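Purpose: get a first structural picture of the assembly so the mutagenesis plan has something to point at.
Setup: two entries, given in the order below. No constraints added.
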Amino acid sequence: MEKTFAVIMAGGVGARFWPSSRAARPKQLLDLTGSGTTMIAATLARLAPEIPAERVLVVTGRATAVAVRKALPTVPRENILAEPVGRNTAPCIGWAALHARRRDPDAVLAVLPSDHLVRKPEEFHAGLRKAVGAAREGALVTCGIAPDRPETGFGYIELGEPISDGVCRVVRFVEKPDLETAKGYVASGRFAWNSGMFFFSAARVLDEIARQMPELKRGLEEIDAGIAAGDERAVVERVFPKLPAQSIDYGVMERAAGIACVPLDIGWSDLGSWSAAHDLSQRDAAGNAFGADVVAVDARGCLVRAPSDVLVALVGVEDLVVVDTGDCLLVCKKDRAQDVKRVLDILKERGRGDLL
Amino acid sequence: MEKTFAVIMAGGVGARFWPSSRAARPKQLLDLTGSGTTMIAATLARLAPEIPAERVLVVTGRATAVAVRKALPTVPRENILAEPVGRNTAPCIGWAALHARRRDPDAVLAVLPSDHLVRKPEEFHAGLRKAVGAAREGALVTCGIAPDRPETGFGYIELGEPISDGVCRVVRFVEKPDLETAKGYVASGRFAWNSGMFFFSAARVLDEIARQMPELKRGLEEIDAGIAAGDERAVVERVFPKLPAQSIDYGVMERAAGIACVPLDIGWSDLGSWSAAHDLSQRDAAGNAFGADVVAVDARGCLVRAPSDVLVALVGVEDLVVVDTGDCLLVCKKDRAQDVKRVLDILKERGRGDLL
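Result (structure tokens, whole complex):
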């Protein structure tokens, strides 16, 4: 796919995977399903047959830039953009679009989260090609995932009539719904989850930003001038904190006309919690997923993560998440995995920022 | 209590407290109830008002002798006897009796386990004085604990008529009963638990050994000659492994005539498992006993032990034992604490003797 650049968004903090995830080691730098590789490296590997590493841009935070570089040794160093502060996805994508446009005025962007799971890579490649094709023709393209449950943690896309094979119009974006609404969406068959993947040409998205987000446009112009002057880092340092913290969804996509959607069936998961990590890990006959040296006596449905030099013994326990990182140990009932965030709140209150 | 010597038996391995207990750090060297001191040091401290450390003999294993010495810095080094191999309690007591008799031909022994809990020290002191008094008059004395449940893990003593204030005859010893029998014992009011504490003069117990355990008698004579010749260590090394591995209960007490019992109400527990350790620890309003830095979100009835530099987070869990020793981590349902032994069996099978 000539002229296509991937933009891997790697600014997330992934607090729901504490204690494995920390400020300096967020979710995308973890192997959450026991695959043997980090999520961001898996994201890159998944792109490899279609987009070479030279055309992969990665936007991450300054605290994680070194770790991202190490996780992605084939990505050229200048392709890794380190934000001084996170300002949500619109500034992140805008900045990457500047770089892509400078390399190729006809650049098309495939914008992808760094920390999602895709279990059907061939279907992903087919969808990628369709979405890039539509983007090359000038569309703003999103990808929809057929919902298998009335999830209230995602935004939804209402799908309209087909435009071409495997591409349809978007009627509207909707924010995270309540449970009743979500059930209606699932039952209707007309709604898809907003997967956070976007496709558009660099020129088109920068045009939309200019039209819909003038403040961001001005900031990006300053940064572009900085790139031209060989002074990018200093300009970004000064400009980035003042950019509006806005998502590309809300800032651009939801208010643009003629959005297209490529519905995908790619075995997708956002891996939102330890519970999801357990569901999507290889499990033994007792439903256990052990990424550690474990002795199990009547243990069922447990996820264990521990350093390789720690022996974990489980006796008579069920549906537990046990994560040992040496300095921290989490023992959590699987159906309470969302409440790991409450642990972080308490640690903040106690002034234990060192453990976040 | 002049002429009284304590014999603290510290040869136990305490496998039920894995991973805190190990071959080189058995139960008596742990602080299981969060008291701030090891069980053996608590045993010594409990004796202090009645028997000075100079008259405390400690019998332990060779692998633990150094640790025992460190735990009991006030006990003279020559009072700590290190068995080359464990041969149960009769050889252990016989050896200690030789030493006590050499120091005082009228020595009376108070033989005590090193790893039991006594929550009423004043009552213990009163009982100790009664038992020593009866032993000084020539009796073989055992101590009985009024049972508060039909425990099948202990031996029982059937109590007979009173001999003097607080001392009664023993009708018979009974081995660990089945549950129905144990229920009958508890209901009858005539049975007490055999606490493993014994009192007798050194001369009397050595006489009984000579009469009932001739093989042990011959071994002890060799050791006594070794002591006299300044060659104790070498003789013990050679003789001890050949001594009959027999308990004082079975080898001497059960077949001797005229045994006395001092029934005790001293807040006693043998602390037989992590579950008992939890029951007997200080607990918060939610029933948690945290000997660690813990963040608890809806946790109830849990025991946690961890190094001071580890943060443990519990989320939505109940009745768990969580023990982190750095190299091992146990997560066990509280009512399954007896099955910790099965973990050790599996570790043996896997050739992980390093973790036992």
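Chain B touches chain A at residues 18-19, 295, 297-298, 306, 309-317, 320, 322, 324, 326-333, 335-337, 339-340, 342-343, 346-347, 350, 352, 355 (CB under 8 Å).
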